[in-house]
């Protein structure tokens, strides 16, 4: 049977397939990403006659469901994100910027597993064995019985790992360096990455090992090459951090066997990654007490409360269209807040540049951060610091009313634990008896109440000479 060779053109950014070359990918809009590849789909399965399908038994919905067999990594913050450890026979993709610490995290995890008696194999396609050894020495892990290899051929790796005792953990650093004979494209192309991942996933399912693939991230934050690999694996973790900070945050973007809202927090030190068990302490460690424009948000990351400082800067703009810049929060929520402040609270920011930043490199997705962001904005505009012993949380609706948020007791307890004595929060839907004890809750039912409180404090502030007329109490506008 002769192979019918249709040239296939594949976008190296999004994996879209076209039948002719184009300068611009119509699917993702990127330029010069389309490359001709021989698709595995066009090739006949060599030498194998077509066979009749095997008959298999169908199962009822009811039945024994054993928990996914987990392999604890010995790193609590990593286990938290995976949902309790690596699942045997599953494949996990770890993405992150170059130099963020992916290899460091994984050599630490494989060393911990190897030390507890599980066979762990670390295959590096990027570094020589000596380089990996050097890193392990620096981390004080040189004595751990991890088995190393510097290899890029998927067939050779699978053949080697099929011999002897099945490894419990296999690390492939990185999937972009791997190649397989079954396709002709160059390593790093979508087809190669996809086929290599496919082969490794099949191997993981067959032998029951937990396989971790490291994936490079492109400049716009996506795991390079195919999004398809993300769809093929069981879990996708992303390792993030701000360049200037030592903090690293591990987050699950997808997880077939666990939650996706937990984060793991690490600190990069001279001897590897250190777990940060209490992230609030870390995020508040550089607090600028008494400065206007900062509010502490009592947030939740998964099941864990995390306090973090939200910083705002509001300044008269010299531009026709004022600037709005946000780091660590959703820009469209900032636009909404600015509109609500304008429409319901008489706070006009139309002529002001507005900058909002979440301290410590954390990224907040919760709507509960609305109240803290609003407090920081108004405080900056009024040049009046907020009370340093208070935390803020609550979702703001378009009408300016506050909506209750979940996990109120945990937020208040965490605030109390860190020495805060007051909280500005919406009325709770239910009476909560154990709401922290030491933290007094000032109920905010509408955003203009909070604006009025800040305006009143600002009027009492002796440091200010002339009252700023951009901040008027509600009802005074006209
Ligand atoms: P690495 O794990 O190689 O990153 P990735 O695999 O994600 O590319 O980490 C590289 C960076 O981490 C490098 O800039 C040096 C720094 N580092 C430390 O600060 N301390 C350490 O103990 C190690 C091993 C690395
Ligand atoms: Mg690396």
Automatic annotation (TrEMBL):
GO biological process: recombinational repair
One Pfam family in the UniProt entry: AAA_25
Keywords associated with the record: ATP-binding, DNA damage, DNA repair, DNA-binding, Hydrolase, Metal-binding, Nucleotide-binding, Stress response, Zinc, Zinc-finger
Signal peptide positions (record): none
GO molecular function: ATP binding; ATP-dependent DNA damage sensor activity; damaged DNA binding; hydrolase activity; zinc ion binding
Region (Lon-protease-like): 353-478
GO CC field: cytosol
Functional note: DNA-dependent ATPase involved in processing of recombination intermediates, plays a role in repairing DNA breaks. Stimulates the branch migration of RecA-mediated strand transfer reactions, allowing the 3' invading strand to extend heteroduplex DNA faster. Binds ssDNA in the presence of ADP but not other nucleotides, has ATPase activity that is stimulated by ssDNA and various branched DNA structures, but inhibited by SSB. Does not have RecA's homology-searching function. Plays a role in repairing double-strand DNA breaks, probably involving stabilizing or processing branched DNA or blocked replication forks.
Name of the protein described by the UniProt record: DNA repair protein RadA
Organism of this sequence: Variibacter gotjawalensis
């Amino acid at each position: 049977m002769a192979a019918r060779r249709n040239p296939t053109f594949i976008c190296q950014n999004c994996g879209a397939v076209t039948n002719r070359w184009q300068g611009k990918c119509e699917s993702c809009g990127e330029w010069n990403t389309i490359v001709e590849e021989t698709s595995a789909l066009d090739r006949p399965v060599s030498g194998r006659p077509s066979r009749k399908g095997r008959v298999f038994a169908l199962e009822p919905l009811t039945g024994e469901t054993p928990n996914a067999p987990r392999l604890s990594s010995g790193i609590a913050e990593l286990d938290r994100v995976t949902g309790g450890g690596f699942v045997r026979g599953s494949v996990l993709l770890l993405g992150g910027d170059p130099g963020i610490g992916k290899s460091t995290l994984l050599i630490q995890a494989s060393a911990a597993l190897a030390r507890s008696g599980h066979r762990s194999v670390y295959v590096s396609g990027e570094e020589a064995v000596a380089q990996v050894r050097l890193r392990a020495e620096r981390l004080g892990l040189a004595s751990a019985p991890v088995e190393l290899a510097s290899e890029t051929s998927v067939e050779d790796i699978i053949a080697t790992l099929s011999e002897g005792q099945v490894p419990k953990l296999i690390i492939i650093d990185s999937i972009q360096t791997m190649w397989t004979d079954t396709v002709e494209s160059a390593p790093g192309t979508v087809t190669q990455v996809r086929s290599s991942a496919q082969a490794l996933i099949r191997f993981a399912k067959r032998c029951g090992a937990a396989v971790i693939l490291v994936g490079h991230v492109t400049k716009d934050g996506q795991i390079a090459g195919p999004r398809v690999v993300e769809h093929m694996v069981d879990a996708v973790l992303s390792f993030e951090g701000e360049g200037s900070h030592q903090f690293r945050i591990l987050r699950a973007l997808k997880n077939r066997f666990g939650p996706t809202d937990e984060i793991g927090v690490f600190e990069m030190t001279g001897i590897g990654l250190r777990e940060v068990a209490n992230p609030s302490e870390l995020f508040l460690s550089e607090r600028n007490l008494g400065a206007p424009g900062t509010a502490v948000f009592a947030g939740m990351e998964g099941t864990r409360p995390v306090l973090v400082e939200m910083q705002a800067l509001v300044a008269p703009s010299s531009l026709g269209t004022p600037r709005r810049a946000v780091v660590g929060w959703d820009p469209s929520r900032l636009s909404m807040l600015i509109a609500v402040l304008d429409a319901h609270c008489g706070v006009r920011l139309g002529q002001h540049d507005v900058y909002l930043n979440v301290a410590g490199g954390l990224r907040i997705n919760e709507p509960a951060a609305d109240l803290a962001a609003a407090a920081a904005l108004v405080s900056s505009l009024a040049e009046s610091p907020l009370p340093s012993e208070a935390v803020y949380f609550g979702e703001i609706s378009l009408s300016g009313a506050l909506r209750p948020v979940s996990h109120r007791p945990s937020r208040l307890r965490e605030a109390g634990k860190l020495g805060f004595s007051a909280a500005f929060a919406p009325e709770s839907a239910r009476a909560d008896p154990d709401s922290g004890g030491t933290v007094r809750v000032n109920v905010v039912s509408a955003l203009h109440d909070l604006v009025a409180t800040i305006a009143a404090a600002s009027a009492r502030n002796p440091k200010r000479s002339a009252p700023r007329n951009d901040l008027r109490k509600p009802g005074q506008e006209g």
